[in-house]
Fold this sequence. Notes:
Number of strands: 13
Distance between the termini: 18 Å
Shape: globular
Structural class: alpha/beta
Helix content: 25-40%
CATH superfamily: Amidase signature (AS) domain
Largest sheet: 11 strands, mixed
Number of domains: 1
Strand content: 5-15%
Strand order of the largest sheet: 1-3-2-4-6-5-12-13-9-7-8
Number of helices: 14
CATH topology: Amidase signature (AS) enzymes
CATH architecture: Alpha-Beta Complex
Amino acid sequence: MPSNELHYLSVAEAAAEIAAKRLSPVELTQAYLDRIAAINPVINAYITVTADSAMAQAKQAEVEITRGDYKGPFHGMPIALKDLFDTKGIRTTGGSKIMADRVPSEDGVVVSMLADAGAVLLGKLNMHEFAFGITNVNPHYGSSRNAWNTDRITGGSSGGSGTATAAGLCAAALGSDTGGSIRIPACFCGIVGIKPTYGRVSKRGVLPLSWSLDHVGPMTRTAEDAALMLQIIAGHDALDPGSTNIAVPSYTSDLGKGIKGMRVGVLRGGYVLPMDADMERALAESINTLRDLGAIVTDPLELPYIEDALPANITIISSEGATFHQANMDERPGDYGEDVFTRLSTGRDHPATAYITARNTQRQVQEQLLDSLDNFDALLTPMLPLGAPPIGQHDVMVGGKPMDVRAAVTRYTQPFNLTGFPAISVPCGFTDDGLPIGFQLAGKPFEEATLLRIAHAYQGVTEWHKQRPPVG
């Protein structure tokens, strides 16, 4: 493959070439650094680029592989991290002014796991300030821009991760997800993003937004790549209070076995917002594709109780976020972006009774959803009711009615943060004006392998994930 095409190899494809010693990690890393130099000024995906250390890591990987010490598919693989993962000796800003000069003394747990697997770190990615927003409009580091249309938002808060992966500025990225912050930018940017079950991946060494709702997960161009990355970062961490000690399965062993006989429920009813005809068509075609692959896709499934998830999720996020930020809110209020400070202030004003009520709702919705999923392998929902809105637009038209952009784009994601159940965004088409569309699959706790298997089967017979954005 020509060097100017290397940045669009999937992780699996590039890993096969590296393992066979037909591709050097140094050559691949240089291709990504060249791509970053050319395209990052346009889409503003990176806050910090670590070119020198990336090349040093690539050279070390090449030496190890040449002498026969190949560690696996991420050995020599150029990746990037949302800028809330602690990185030893590299600033970790949280997308904020307050932490602009913060340099951790050690890596976060998942960062160490990827480093041990031989990954090459290209840099730290732009994000919505302190992960508390869905646009990635950042007053401190500038807005990330969608590679499919640079006038449009990337989604957030992992917006830099979404647009960098889509535009070939990294082979894969890590994001975090508290109300949809992996899946929303994954959908808007036309890539795969998986939020694992709460407790599946350690959050130690990750700047928190909401301790009880934060999740860490991969953002990649394919479901196979997401499986490969999740395999590295999943596992119990005894020092993370939210971590669960449940054995990690192989995410790739059953990946290619097909989905014949799998039962998929489709969310319909009053909870589903009206969609434009192009989005309805993409969703219907995706359902037909799953049926063609042998899945048993049921009649529409209504889950009226998940309406309760939205206010509960927001109450918990803002309350726990305000607790973490309390000192800085008192001492440096002017150093927060207006939107983030307003949301944190709302959380500080919540009475304890509101928080306790939200936690009770959380338990009830978890129980109800688990019961509803008892006869299904996965639940299919729309991912978003619209394509990526213009940067700076606060209200959107959904079904002919104006709606706050944040409420619109988190409607299908927040229930799975509140419950902690796994969910994945999968590209499934484009709007009439060329913006990516996706569907969401959600499943029972710790059944990420099932979601990845369905997504992989779908991608095996469709081409949406292979489309390349026009930027660059």
